[in-house]
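Lab meeting notes turned into a lecture example. A postdoc, R.K., suggested we walk through two folding results consecutively so the class can see how the record format repeats. The first protein's sequence and structure tokens come next.
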Amino acid sequence: MKQSMTLIPTLREIPSDAEVKSHQLLLRAGFIRQNASGVYSYLPLAQIVLRKIEAIVREEMNEAGAVELLMPALQQAEFWQESGRWYTYGPELMRLKDRHDRDFALGATHEEVITSLVRDEVKSYKRLPLTLYQIQTKFRDEKRPRFGLLRGREFIMKDAYSFHSNPESLDDVYNKMYQAYSNVFSRCQLDFRAVIADSGAMGGKDTHEFMVLSDVGEDTIAYSDSSDFAANIEMAPVVAKYEKSSEAELPLEKVETINQKTIEDVSNFLSVSPAKCIKSLLFKLDEKYVLVLVRGDHEVNDIKLKNILDASSVELASPEEAHSVLACTIGSIGPIGISNVEIIADIAVESIVNGVCGANEEHFHYTNVNPNRDFQVTKFVDLRFIQEGDPSPDGKGTIVFAKGIEVGHVFKLGTRYSEAMNASYLDENGRTKPMLMGCYGIGVSRTLAAVAEQFNDENGLVWPVNLAPFDVHLIAVNMKDEAQAQLSEELYSHLKQSRFDVLFDERQERPGVKFADSDLIGLPLRITVGKKASEGIVEVKVRKTGEVYEVQKADLLTMVTDLVKSL
């Protein structure tokens, strides 16, 4: 491709609204342009990379036994009403009406559409298992689109759905998809972790997220420093053991703590460790209030709380709700004397001896508080967020944290959608049963951004060779020089004939502009035809390492072939 004939609008300055490297560089290198908040055009270079990522995804999906189809982005509301998500998905679902006042949604995901399709076409166990996938644009009305392609309102996604007659079949396909995803992200040369995750609004129980490690990631990954254990911080179980102090239990005492409201305030005021304080928080789970206790140096994990109590929603009670339910302010809540709401506590709380808690009266706390003596709880369970330095749940090493960008997610949905939408089959005995389902998504456009986030330097992008828009950036320093123009055209023709993808910069621009653009775009190899063109000598530069070679025309194809293979 001749550079003068395509659209690569590079920028010298960093756009003011671009916060992260991938966003900055994809804009500056002319890969994308913003049309609206969270909505982007993919320019020619980005389109080539997207197609290469999609090709990898298709190869791995097909190898895993999935079959491609394409479903509508415009979805009728009736399907979402059948599943119940029309009412629960939230404002992220883009809803609209047609001219007949019928409700539709722009597809945020396709569980409902695929379930309706398969229930109408598959009636027997003999047609199962079946795995179908598509690559399509999705729409979610993000409250705060940010970080360019990493969190947008319109994005490209691969979504796959599997249907089964038994759990063993679902497990088999889930494992194949897990491996396929690992292959996809490995082939994209990403540094990633597959982590245990929460299924959220998708439903289902067993699920893993594929996280690309990055300081700009919005999710925190807890992983072992000595094994392959990794989990989203919300899902990492805590296996720490707590030794109960042998000190004698002292009489309960109520003390004045004027204006001491936070754990830090109280622990400093009373000269006790935060680990001896009991943090008491009132939560509303669906329509039920629950008092949750954790140690003062720990934080309540609301995802664990939701899962333990099998709730659909969980939120902290407001100050008004706390006053109505417990007749006290939020800063003074404690478990002593509470009888009208259920109390559950993290395991660590049971080991506290002579601790501190709120007295349900403003400006007062209790000291010498001892669980099971001074108050009762329904159960002690793992309710807190894991922390760095905690033992790894698999018993190997300790936990460290990293930030991650979610690029893929695999779910075991079970019968969440098939039961709600009556997607059933006849088994071997002629009995009607709901299909078991799995769901598997890859953010294709987000993967593009994740690669850009990990592969760059101070001068621009540095594409892995298998994802680069072109293999070679051929630069003619001065096309008005006859020797340079002739040699450049000759090399351009030979490289293309040898099956290399070449971007040929034959523009009438200053050499400095061409070299700066080349570094920004970040193709694996740069071939510069300059002052030694009359001698048949060109310069070859490896973008990744900065290595530079002077090469005779006759040796160029061999060198380029060898270098591309080595990258």
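The second example is placed directly after the first for contrast:
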Amino acid sequence: MLDHPIARIENLRVEFQTKSGTVVGVEDVSFDIAAGETVCVVGESGSGKSVSSLSLMRLIEFGGGDIANGKLIFDRKDGGPLDLTTADQDLMRTIRGNEIGMIFQEPMTALNPVFTVGRQLTEGLKVHRGMSQDEAEARALELLREVRIPEPERRLRQYPHELSGGMRQRVVIAMALACKPRLLIADEPTTALDVTIQAEILALIDRLKRETGTAVMFITHDMAVVAQMADRVVVMFRGNKVEEGPVEEIFEAPKHPYTQALLAAVPKLGEMTGSDAPRPMKLVGRDDQATDPIPGTNETLLTVENLVTRFPVTGGFFRRTVANVHAVEDVSFTINRGQTLSLVGESGCGKSTAGRSILRLVEPLSGKIDLDGMDVMSLSPGALRRARQDMQMIFQDPFASLNPQMQLADQVSEPMRNFGLASGSEMRDRVANLFDRVELPRSFMQRYPHELSGGQRQRIAIARALALNPKLIIADEAVSALDVSVQAQVVNLMMELQAELGLSFLFISHDMAVVERVSHYVGVMYLGRIVELGPRRAVFEDPQHPYTQALMKAVPIADPRQRKSERDLNFKPIPSPIHEAGYTPDPTRYKEVSPGHKVLISDSGY
């Protein structure tokens, strides 16, 4: 390690003034980052990870925070060490973007929706580096190639909403790297990304660090990503650093009870090898929980046959349909009572559309959907509304799916009011029981969504889905944005409810380790089709389709001694699902490789 670290945080304390008094975001934190080193800062939401990084950028003042104590020493390229807490905002403007780059967590809010990608990439280069428009555009093209964005010339002219989440995140990374900063702060840069894109972006940040000697402060709650990226780890809990050390030491001999609990809550791919039925995780400090396998039944509840959902693309003067997005193409599967089928795949593969099509939140073009003997496709609007009692949905973003102006008790009771199932004291009792079920205190009933953490909001969404005693729940990426320990609790909760109430789940996710933990059956989707379908054990222990194999290979493992190299990741670019109006897709043909385990026969690369 160098005598002069690039960044050194000493005894940092950050306070926020609120109506109810002073809230301490970070109490007393010290650590440093050397050139060419990646320091991962881990901890749950609210532990002070992002507050520390925003303090280093001196952006915390714009968010209502105040650096009450401590030093932030940054070793400048030309000026030597400087305490950033004493720098004025004009000097900070020169340092930000030029010498310290930042990748923000949410790419949609980090990019300006009214400017093209090219304009946003060239802006920093012109301001900080004094480049001409032509020089800046040439460098922007080079950056987009570095972050592996296909057709970079076209992307420069596009707006952020025209790119997928993974592409937008790559643009944000390109912007952060544009001026070759000495320190790169990455705040949860891969949280919302698919496993394949995440693997590519981690490899990219690692390669750029090695090539340029940049110091990297990497903030995450995903321990598998820490194992893949970190040289050293700083563990934060409630505004304090509770443990620090080399990555192997933290994973193999964690000292602090919080670090031990954090590592115990990580679902690891391969943990379920050899078992046929899913079972809840054993959580630290929870002796009362059941961890028995959940066999379910062999009685079919949902049958989906040849489901097709397409979205028209209109164009020309008369807005005619010129092409179709083939979102779901000839999908068939069954779900048994009390069992879980998981659909996995990358963004844009059609998982969520398939889930919404089954509930007819999106109208399918054709196909058959049979729920417990009821033909869902032929139902009139009134009959469909009554049928919705039996099938409910948990959405990906709990904040967007809850009403910010309603108290939580009213949101959970609303489905029962709508269907006239209960009223008065019976309704209040049922709502209180649902809060108990999802392990939230009854005192929360009078709260509003903004007063809860992400994991607590997701529990409210689960309670609301349970209010009508449904037979089937479709969980669309229900745990993808949660901290690892909260995710483990919510997944366990869903499994306990399944064992108790005999619920069936269609679990839509891109997190392979969670899918392995919860599933009885797994379907792997690619470009609107299921390319492999079978019992979980068969699909995970003997993946047959090349795409399933590539997906498994990309999953980061929570073990620093089993890091993936860039050579391991050989993803083919995903072709477009848009085809012109007269296009007829190939028929879907499967071969059965073992009982119930089917693989798509295809002529394409995958």
